[in-house]
Amino acid sequence: MVELVARSSRVIEARLQKSSVRAISGSMVSYQGQVQFKSAGFGGGAGVLAGLKQKATGESLTLMECTGDGVVQFAVNAQYVTVLPLNNETMQVESRQILALAGNLNTNVQFAGVGGMSGGQGLFTTTVSGTGQVALLSAGGPLIHLEVNPNLPLVVDPDAFVAAKGQLQQSFVTDVSWRSAVGQGGGEAFSLRWQGQGVVSIQPAER
User: Fold this and answer.
1) Which residue, 144, 142, 136, is CA-closest to 74?
2) Sign of CA dihedral 85, 86, 92, 95
3) Could you tell me the superkingdom of the organism this chain comes from (predicted)?
4) Which of 120, 136, 148, 183 is most buried (most C-beta within 10 Å)?
5) Tens-binned pLDDT, residue by residue, of the chain (207 aa)
6) d(CA 169, CA 1)
7) DSSP structure string for 52-97
8) How far is CA 70 from the centre of its chain?
9) Are 133 and 84 in contact (CB under 8 A)?
10) Among candidates 41, 52, 59, which has minimal Cα distance to 112?
11) Phi (first) and psi of residue 161, to 5 degrees
12) SS (H, E, C) the chain
């Protein structure tokens, strides 16, 4: 059994009892007890195929596995940390925002749709599914959770998007107007539009 607990707003603590937790490689900042560390490969599944998929899609997630009895603290660049529970659910998440995974959770990379932009950003997304806890990073402050319902779709900047869960459908919206208004008229601007029923989490800063 393992439990993820917020040690502070920027440090997460995994409490191990003859159990294991996966976290982003290099994110361990301290630990106590009998804990072993090893590479857990890519987050998009297992084996060479998972590695090729990660490389092809640009969704990068390199994990380590921490096993034993003890307490391990994780942090990345003093970013804020939020722990979210999953109960037999699937979450779409920006791969670089994942800090740790605890419980019976699987990760994968899925096609997210055609965005119509030249850079290809957002065409693929990482998913986390199952039952357990997910620790997510955010820059500029704690995560902001925005509810979406059928009567009120939500549009977010892809550079602020962190995660989404629920019965949600994602689409791309080409919206030059707001970027032009802030002096970023160059290139092909787009936003992520979410509709349905669920929660979208964003960070109060752009990547």
Assistant:
1) 136
2) positive
3) Bacteria
4) 136
5) 789 999 999 999 999 999 999 999 999 999 999 999 998 875 545 555 555 555 555 556 788 999 999 999 999 999 999 999 999 999 999 988 999 999 999 888 876 665 544 444 546 788 999 999 999 999 999 999 999 999 999 999 888 999 999 999 988 887 656 555 555 555 446 788 999 999 999 999 887
6) 34
7) HHHHHH----EEEEEEEEEEEEE-STT-EEEEEEEEEEEEEE-GGG
8) 25
9) yes
10) 59
11) -65, 135
12) CEEEEECCCCCEEEEEEEEEEEEECCCEEEEEEEEEEEEEEECCCCHHHHHHHHHHHCCCCEEEEEEEEEEEEECCCCCEEEEEEEEEEEEEECHHHEEEEEEEEEEEEEECCCCCCCCCCCCEEEEEEEEEEEEEEECCCCCEEEEEECCECEEECCCCEEEEEEEEEEEEECCHHHHHHCCCCCCCCCEEEEEEEEEEEECCCCC
The domain over range 3-202 is classified in CATH as 3.40.50.970: no
Residue written as token pair 């939020």: 82
What six digits make up the tokens of 40? 């857990």
Structure tokens at 10: 């920027």
Domain assignments of the chain as residue spans, ordered by start: 3-202
